[in-house]
Amino acid sequence: MTPLLEVRNVTRRLPEGAVLVRDVSLALRAGEFMAVTGPSGSGKSSLLYLLGLLDRPSSGEVLLEGQDTARLPASDLAALRLAKLGFVFQFHFLLPEFTALDNVLIPIRRLGRLHGGAARDRAMGLLEAFGLADAHQKLPEQLSGGMRQRCAIARALANDPALILADEPTGNLDSANAAAVFDIFERLVREEGRAVVVVTHDPVLAQRATRQLRLVDGVIVEDTGRG
Ligand SMILES: Nc1ncnc2c1ncn2[C@@H]1O[C@H](COP(=O)(O)OP(=O)(O)OP(=O)(O)O)[C@@H](O)[C@H]1O
After folding, report:
1. What is the pLDDT of residue 52?
2. What is the mean pLDDT of residues 81-94?
């Protein structure tokens, strides 16, 4: 079966020559939960941006559902990200002037597959699933840190992406809220068959993933899912 996402011999070099990611190849399938670990500056975020079509490799291929993305214009990449990928970052990036509900509704409306009540039902369903039903009219600043990050995850799932990419999503959370975020990721993988890639510094949380990818100096030094 075609992998959800495949990168082949991907290198990302800065114009002045520094190499952030060097000759990385991997395939990611539905139902995989992959933790990306490695020392600070080892290229974890750089790799995640390449996997998420937020950045382009200097060389190598990035295929989403078998489609080569190399020559797609930026607008097509943005459309693919909106429809097929969900992102969660260390900082929630919720829009401060919009309610929790509107933050989840905005990507649904931008994609335009669901309208009116159906769009609202989808957004409310996600907020309910993450314990935010009663908070749907609150602004981000009125939510706790854990609630904000769960709202950011609800937003990442708004358009039903097959793949969720998370960069240090628990970096600003206490251990209970961090564990709750990983509980959600496990559920998305086990019960819904999505794929999750999570960059984390936390070795205990990383062990909850089903696949471990370790980077040093932009190179994969361990990938338990290879083979
Ligand atoms: N656009 C850029 N311009 C210059 N340097 C960059 C750029 N992007 C990344 N870097 C540098 O490349 C290296 C790899 O960065 P990256 O953020 O991918 O590492 P990381 O493993 O995610 O690090 P951390 O764990 O500290 O977040 C770092 O030394 C970083 O400072």
Report:
1. 97
2. 93
For residue 194, give the nearest of 108, 109, 88, 95 by alpha carbon. Answer: 88
Which atom of ligand 1 is the closest one to the Cα of 201? 25
Q: How confident is the model at residue 70 (pLDDT cuts 50, 70, 90)?
A: confident
- Report how far residue 178's alpha carbon sits from residue 173's, in angstroms, rounded to the nearest whole number: 6
* Length of the chain in terms of residues written: 227
Exposed e or buried b for every residue in 130-166, given b needs 16+ CB within 10 A? bebeebbebbbeebeebbbbbbbbbbbbbbbbbbbbb
Query: Which domains are present in the chain?
Result: 5-223 (3.40.50.300)
- pTM, 2 dp: 0.94
| Residue-level pLDDT at 194 | 95
**ipTM score of the complex?**
0.92
Nearest residue (by CA) to ligand 1, atom 18, is 43
Ligand 1 centroid to residue 164 C-alpha, Å: 21
The alpha carbon dihedral of 138, 140, 143, 147 has a sign of: positive
Instruction: List the structure tokens of 188.
Output: 């998305």
Pairwise CA distance, residues 227 & 211, whole Å: 12
